[in-house]
Amino acid sequence: MGAGGRTSVPPSPKKPEFYPLKRVPCSKPPFTLSQIKKAIPRHCFKRSVLRSFSYLIYDLVLASLFYYVATNYFPSLPQPLPYVAWPLYWAMQGCIFTAFWALAHECGHQAFSDYQWLDDTISFILHTFLLTPYFSLKYSYRRHHSNTGSLERDEVFVPKKKSALKWWAKHFNNPLGRFLEISIQLTLGWPLYLLFNITGPPYDRLACHYDPYGPIFSDRQRLQIYVSDAGVLAVTYALYRLVLAKGVGWVISVYGVPLLVVNAFLVMITYLQHTHPSLPHYESSEWDWLRGALSTVDRDYGILNKVFHDITRIHVAHHLFPTIPHYHAMEATKVIKPVLGEYYQFDGTPVYEAIWRELKECVYVEPDEGDNDKGVLWFRNKL
């Protein structure tokens, strides 16, 4: 897949290593996708079944170990140690479940192996375990990758223009409002996205990821949506049987709270990858695939970068070449940065600061004054 070697295109002028609020260019890049690809070593495009499975097995071993310790030793801990042990379990197991999701997402882009059936099988199992309809998400994310940065056709975290804001937006444009918004996003954001496609584009009817006949999906995809729904129903029934056998408190403690941690991370990670004061959004008159794919940002989650298989800091490369496996994506990111130059965006701001700043600064999008016909829109916050 990779052409090997180095691109002959001179690198774009470098920007400072860390200047996250500087706008990225919105003009057509002086390079093409094929020229970016030539900068990436050929081996970065190679997927190894054994290596990919090694990460999955590692995550499964850790999750099993956390489960074993929690269910076998926590009940006998003297008070008040359980009040410390259980939150630690929830945090660590939630992170490992998020790592499951990262690998499942990679399978959805066929970056796990060369075999579509294998990737679909693994991703279906992992997504279903996390109560996520796999094929539904696979197809909506495919639309997202095809239309990133487009105000009309993107599928997730599509910002609104000022004129489209709801009347209550101004009441949330303050510290208390932002705190409430963060709380809602991190607790209910993921199920609301699956059920009602919030943050997605408007459709002429409800766009639900569980609805095989929803507007997100084509006729050829509907049978697989039924399969996704059947999987989620099967896991839901299994959880019901566990509640009968073990009690609702046991199921919530062992599985439910870690799942809430996963949901919070999924919203945070995807929100911060596509929401940043420096990133443009495009109307159809200006949008093209390459500029849209570059309208994303890599972030730094510290030690969690490795736990989450680097999905947090290789998102730009992922949008350009989604079949590159995560264990090669960091190398690919390093070699394409000189080619992308100012078109590459990285923000090392701690995520707890970044999500607060983005909610404050990125309320709606509008063109710069005097550029109303240009079709390039930037985030604003003044109401």
From TrEMBL:
Quote the subcellular location field of this record.
Answer: Membrane
The regions listed as transmembrane in this protein's record are 55-74, 86-104, 250-272
- The Fatty acid desaturase N-terminal domain extends over 25-62
Q: What is its main location?
A: membrane
Location of the Fatty acid desaturase domain: 86-345
Pathway where it operates: Lipid metabolism; polyunsaturated fatty acid biosynthesis
Which keywords does this Swiss-Prot/TrEMBL entry list? Fatty acid biosynthesis, Fatty acid metabolism, Lipid biosynthesis, Lipid metabolism, Membrane, Oxidoreductase, Transmembrane, Transmembrane helix
Q: Which family does it belong to?
A: Belongs to the fatty acid desaturase type 1 family.
UniProt xrefs under PANTHER family: OMEGA-6 FATTY ACID DESATURASE, CHLOROPLASTIC (PTHR32100)
Q: What is this protein called?
A: Delta(12)-fatty-acid desaturase FAD2-like
Q: Which organism is it from?
A: Gossypium arboreum
